[in-house]
Design brief:
Elements lengths: L2 E6 L5 E5 L4 E5 L6 E5 L2 H16 L18 H11 L8 H5 L15 E4 L11 E4 L8
Antiparallel strand pairs: 1-2, 3-4, 5-6
């Protein structure tokens, strides 16, 4: 997997987000150069499993619009809270989270992907909801 730098944490280290290649890119602290290393799919799959397992701990948590957890969530607050636990920085709203990622076809959705949709008001053209996919398949 190739990692895209999503943001920088408090210590100034880049937070890496896997994408669909077979290397991870990191900053070397001594030279400030980027290097690429292989990242086995099994490592990525284990991280995805941990994320989905952690998310399932919150099944039954009450919904409240605008809530960011852990006692109440709205959909984007839930995904932001879960991904933040694994050092992935997501924006606060589902519409802004949608702009952080890349689009894939429905048949390409993989375990751990964020899935966005309009919600109940089909007349609205913008994203209104998000959830984390727990489909059994992993991306290759």
């Amino acid at each position: 997997m190739m990692a895209n730098i999503l943001s920088t944490n408090a210590e100034g280290k880049d937070l890496l987000v896997p994408s669909k290649t077979d290397t991870v890119t990191i900053d070397t602290l001594s030279t400030k150069n980027r290097i690429s290393l292989p990242l086995p799919n099994t490592l990525v799959n284990k991280q995805i499993d941990r994320l989905v397992e952690y998310a399932r701990k919150y099944i039954g948590t009450p919904y409240r619009r605008g809530s960011k957890g852990p006692n109440r969530f709205d959909c984007s607050g839930f995904t932001q809270y879960i991904f933040n636990h694994f050092s992935y920085s997501l924006n606060a709203s589902s519409a802004s989270q949608y702009l952080q990622g890349i689009s894939v076809k429905d048949e390409e959705i993989c375990r751990g992907d964020l899935v966005f949709f309009k919600g109940r008001n089909s007349r609205r053209s913008n994203v209104g909801h998000v959830y984390t996919s727990s489909v059994p398949n992993y991306c290759k």
